[in-house]
Amino acid sequence: MGLEAIYTELIAEQSRNPENKHHLTAPTVVLKGRNPSCGDEISLELRVENDRIADAAFTGVGCAISQASTSMMIDLIKGKTVAEAKRLMALFFGMIKREITDDAVLEELDEAAALKNVANLPARVKCAVLSWHTLEDALQTEKEK
Amino acid sequence: MSDSQEFRKDFPLLGQKMNGKPLVYLDNGATTQKPESVIQSMCGYYGGCNANPHRGAYALSVEATDIYENARVRVQRFIHAPAAREVIFTKNATEALNLAAYSYGMTNIGSGDEIVITIAEHHSNLVPWQQVAKAKGAVLKYIYLEADGNLSTDDIAAKITPKTKLVAVTQVSNVLGLVNPVREIAARAHAVGAVLVVDGSQSVAHMAVDVQELDADFFAFSGHKMLSPMGIGVLWGRAALLDAMPPFLTGGDMIEYVTEQHTDFAELPAKFEAGTQNVGGAAGLTAAIDYLEKIGFDRIGAIEKDLLDYALPQLRQLPFITLYGCDTTQNNKTGIITFNVKDVHPHDVATILDAEGVAVRAGHHCAQPLMQYLGVNATCRASFYFYNTREDVDRWIAALKKVREVMHLGA
């Protein structure tokens, strides 16, 4: 089932010491994401300026997969326009649902593509997508402002 | 050979593999596996006797009614209830506790009254009382724990006061695995005129229960945690209380007579059993009680204690394991071991154990206030039943030793 592949040193490292885990000084939107059955809980902070995600960070507790996925997502979306972030979001969801399997296409997800094999762990998919769902809701909140 | 080996052949699922490894099923606190006799009783019902009970004038319906009402009598004897009509079938313990909360609680608890529960309650014996307190303007108070995880005796005395109208307590905590002093709590509750609701979800499958000896007023449990199918549970209550309560769900089969603007309700137990009931589940519950009584709770308890005594010293040797509720000095520990692996989230632990064929629970165990009280976000839980073996414990502990390796944290 490729467990070792999923728990690569990268993920373990990301979850132990994620560089994106801190508060932002002036976030424009802060949103909590929870997996009620697990106790994974993240708080995503974004600073959106002129339709661009100028900065992003998170705080919270959770398993290695949810923490690493959040950190990798932030690496990806920082500096991107909202539209670009949404496109990457669709790509990530497509990867986790195994609708998109072409590695060349997934290359754009950079490190987050390492989470491809989480699709083999149905019980853990919700951990990998928590941050992306939270981003989806946060961008919606930002849009409705 | 351990005593439990002879039972394993009765459980078809225990012979399965999980992720290519022989299954080690250690999530009995969530639900137990089912013996062949229970599975056959369900097949027998649906294959040979299925009809709507209490309705038809034909033989099949009468047979279905007999199966259903016989289950009620079996449950009555199983928990030593005074009368079968006090045994109400529900879909699970959660529904049973909601019945008590909505039908008894909403009617008998008012503004300024106090409801006392413990911090170790499962959400099923917590959220309904929170709802009652909110709706009626009552105060929800908690009995907290001693350092060893047992309920604080001082707190039991202090929190249950003349303002207390209802006390709800689990007989065994689903996280800490400790047996609570229900009789003492009953004495305190009754001394102040409160009624006592007992959640028996984690006890009935593991120890002999006598609701009269416990001096409970209501007692709830699920069938599926005691070898039965899912979808059948029980609320037992004292007849005098149940008789005075309004119905919980209304509709078919719970009426005496209905006119355009008025309904006379049926007597107990039908008053609380609206709609077509789970007769197949009741047949399964009967077979489960037969199976459990054939083994006897002395043997079941002895096997679980042996597994506990075998596992705990080994776990204490592992420097990266933290145990919860395992230091009781009162000889009241059941076969539930809640733990964490240092620096690894419980879900990652459970996933790595899963790859080794070992099934444990990870998360908050439907006891978030207890997790908050213990200062943890989540934990892992292994829970034994009489069909578990020392070999299961060996496989579990061997898998635990792999966890930190997989997470690149060193051995």
Notes on the protein architecture:
The complex is a heterodimer of chains A (145) and B (411). Chain A has 145 residues and is of the alpha+beta class. Chain A has one domain (3-143): Sufe protein. Chain: A (Alpha-Beta Complex), CATH 3.90.1010. Helices cover 44% and strands 19% of the residues of chain A. Chain A has helices at 3-6, 9-16, 64-77, 82-96, 103-106, 125-143, and strands at 29-35, 40-49, 52-61. In chain A, strands 1-2-3 form a 3-stranded antiparallel sheet, covered by helices on one side. In chain A, a hairpin with a 4-residue loop joins strand 1 and strand 2. Chain A is globular, with a radius of gyration of 14 Å. The mean pLDDT of chain A is 90. Chain B has 411 residues and is of the alpha/beta class. In chain B, helix 8 (211-214) links the parallel strand 8 and strand 9 (218-222). Chain B has 2 domains: 5-30 and 297-406, Alpha-Beta Complex (Aspartate Aminotransferase, domain 1), CATH 3.90.1150.10; 38-292, Type I PLP-dependent aspartate aminotransferase-like (Major domain) (Aspartate Aminotransferase, domain 2), CATH 3.40.640. In chain B, the strands form 5 sheets. Chain B has a 7-stranded mixed sheet with strand order 4-10-9-8-7-5-6, with helices on both faces. Chain B starts with a helix and ends in a 5-residue tail after the last helix. Classes of the chains: A alpha+beta (145), B alpha/beta (411). The interface between A and B is medium-sized, with 24 and 22 residues.
